[in-house]
Specification:
seven-stranded mixed β-sheet; 9% helix; 5 helices; 650 residues; mainly beta
Length: 650
């Protein structure tokens, strides 16, 4: 009897923390009597999206909404659009504060939380509750938990789970009516993290698909809401999507996505998991058009689908693979794998009961936990089950089973190689099958690992584990939360998400390099410049008198019917002979002049120009050009004009 009691206590302790899904209203908490004062924030915590620490005392008169979240949690991600709507509706009366109470070790780091804030476009203050101090003060027990505090500083309402807008909207309106004379409507402005970061061409790329046969890479540029297409060497070919957030089908230039993730190729079609639109899209690579083939454009809680895919609601599809004309969908939002018959257009459940955990067994009875990467081989579907830090398989045969290869539980994670019993991963998101082996992006461990699915062993093959961006020998290279991985011609292509890059791991030489996308400076604002490694167009040298130069005029002719792209920032950098940047300026119109001080003696001008058709403001063409200035002491005028024509590239 004593042993039974101990087991029950352990179950209760583990069950006290969970991810809440579509839970119902947990009820008000003293909303009428105001008897429980909201605990104050500790004064020694790190804050983001604000230039200083905040206190509930200074927020008296405001309605305050605390969002207890952790950035791995799909349920927390689903709540963010509701919070955004509330912030916009009650811009003067409401202050939302994210209380980031980490689940995984990696999520405790302030820099990692900063990246998540940028990735999910969060614009309210966030406090790093890495030691769960605020979490415990407020007796939170699930992600996400929402706590509403009235203008007098008392807890008015709390609930856990998703679909919170209607309930919170009603409670906020109730508080506005009750405290009408006490509401402080003074606007509050915060210094956001997004105002502090340099611009990059890729923004949080989530996945990558490699097509060696056709010499193509399809890079999911998630935060730019598009797919970037290059050849295997990195030469930019085209983009799929305008870059504007939305759901529109149509041409590559006009189609819209919302935080897309995984893609998979079949013949001339690229299938795309349009994650935050809760859609599956098909990009026809011949006609260069995009169409929706599954989903209705909003999140739907449906655990047993069996219908035409176009009329069936989805829940955060995250990655895709295709076997025998069947599209398998890793549905992170419902903790399941669905299958879509591409011939009939019907969609149905393949694996996962919909309950979040790690439980093997018959396909539809097994429990999964936020599958976020998927591949196939040898008659099986293999998937990265991120919330249990696991790698698992599901038989393709409908009467098959789910089997765990690596992974132990929702709170069993770490960074250990070895056999099944010893091995630990930390929130893997990417997986690809290569000759009987699985290569995974062990995301929160900043590593690439090789998994033997038969022997059930794990081995680190690239990455030190420290976040960073270092090329070279694989074991010495560094990554920053890599999220996607694919294989072609002896190389692994890795979406290095927080570095905003694609990395290339050569399995033969065991080295890691960075894919350089030609025509694009990967890191705008970089302080070092090497003309020898420049990958854009090098223009003919311009001879000038550097000693008397006081103005450079850029006269660039765009093709007929084209204009500078207003959705992207064209710019010019003047660079000295030692590589230092003399001046950076936006190109807002052509021609355009840059005045120079007497001490400025540029050696190079580097231009990054985005231009598009006048009838379409999507990103269409890019020109990255380098102009070299040669000195001449012949008494020329102090003004020089740099002129050339831009082409419509194919």
């Amino acid at each position: 009897m004593k042993r039974l009691t101990i087991i029950l206590m352990l179950i209760l302790l583990v069950g006290n923390i969970s991810c809440a899904q579509n839970t119902g209203d947990r009820g008000r908490m003293n909303s009428e009597n105001n008897t429980i004062r909201a605990p104050e924030f500790p004064g020694d915590m790190e804050w983001l999206n604000t230039e200083r620490s905040l206190s509930l005392e200074e927020l008296r008169g405001k309605i305050v909404l605390l969002d207890f979240w952790t950035y791995c949690c799909i349920n927390c991600i689903h709540v963010l659009p509701d919070l955004k709507k509330l912030e916009e509706k009650y811009a003067e009366e409401l202050v939302v504060i994210g209380v980031h109470s980490a689940k995984f070790f990696t999520e405790q780091g302030t820099d990692n939380i900063r990246q998540a804030i940028l990735r999910y476009n969060i614009t309210h203050p966030v406090v790093n509750d890495k030691d769960l101090r605020i979490w415990n003060e407020y007796n939170a027990n699930a992600w996400p938990t929402l706590v509403l505090i009235n203008p007098e500083g008392y807890i008015a309402y709390r609930r856990s789970g998703e679909n919170v807008f209607d309930a919170l909207d009603g409670q906020i309106q109730f508080l506005l009516d009750k405290f009408e004379g006490e509401i402080d409507r003074t606007p509050m402005d915060f210094v956001l993290e997004q105002e502090k970061i340099p611009d990059t061409f890729l923004k949080f790329p989530g996945k990558v698909t490699a097509d060696a046969e056709n010499d193509r890479l399809y890079i999911t540029d998630s935060n730019n809401n598009r797919i970037v297409v290059t050849d295997m060497a990195g030469n930019l070919l085209k983009t799929i999507g305008s870059g504007e957030k939305g759901q529109s089908d149509g041409s590559f230039e006009s189609a819209q996505f919302n935080q897309p993730q995984g893609t998979v190729l079949l013949e001339n079609s690229l299938y795309i998991a349009d994650t935050e639109n809760h859609l599956i899209r098909r990009a026809d690579l011949e006609s260069e058009t995009v169409e929706t083939i599954a989903g209705i454009g909003r999140q739907v809680y449906n655990r047993r689908p069996d219908d035409v895919a176009k009329y069936t609601g989805l829940n955060s599809p995250w990655d895709l693979t295709i076997a025998d004309s069947t599209l398998y969908i890793a549905k992170a939002g419902s903790h399941q794998i669905w299958r879509l018959d591409l011939r009939s257009g019907n969609i149905t459940l393949h694996a996962g009961s919909g309950y979040e955990n790690i439980k093997d067994g018959p396909l539809t009875e097994a429990q999964l936990a936020q599958p976020s990467g998927i591949t196939h081989g040898d008659g099986k579907i293999y998937f990265a089950d991120s919330e249990v830090s696991g790698i698992r398989s599901a038989d393709i045969a409908p009467q098959g089973k789910v089997r765990t290869i690596i992974g132990h539980g929702l709170f069993e994670y770490g960074d250990k190689d070895g056999s099944y019993r010893r091995a630990r991963l930390q929130h893997p998101l990417g997986i690809t099958y290569v000759d009987g082996m699985l290569y995974i992006a062990d995301t929160y461990n900043n590593k690439i690992k090789r998994i033997d699915p038969d022997e059930r062993t794990s081995e680190t093959v690239a990455g030190t584990g420290e976040p960073g961006m270092k090329d070279g020998k694989a074991k010495s290279a560094t990554f920053d939360e890599p999220g996607g991985i694919d294989y072609a011609d002896g190389k692994l292509y890795i979406a290095d998400t927080n570095n905003h890059l694609v990395r290339v791991f050569d399995l033969e030489s065991k080295t890691v390099s960075t894919l350089k996308i030609s025509g694009i400076r990967e890191m705008a604002g970089a302080s070092e410049f090497d003309p020898e490694s420049f990958s854009g167009t090098v223009r003919d040298p311009v001879t000038i008198d550097l000693n008397s130069l006081n103005q450079i005029r850029f006269d660039i002719s765009l093709p007929k019917g084209y204009k500078l792209n207003p959705l992207a920032t064209s710019q010019v950098r003047l660079i000295a002979g030692d590589g230092s940047i003399i001046k950076t300026a936006e190109l807002t119109g052509l021609p355009q002049s840059l005045p120079l001080k007497e001490s400025m003696k540029p050696k190079y001008a580097e231009l990054l120009i985005y231009y598009c058709r006048k009838d379409n403001e999507g990103l269409c063409f890019i020109d990255n050009s380098l102009v070299e200035f040669r000195n001449s002491n012949d008494g020329m005028s102090g003004e020089i004009t740099v002129s050339y024509d831009l082409m419509v590239q194919s």
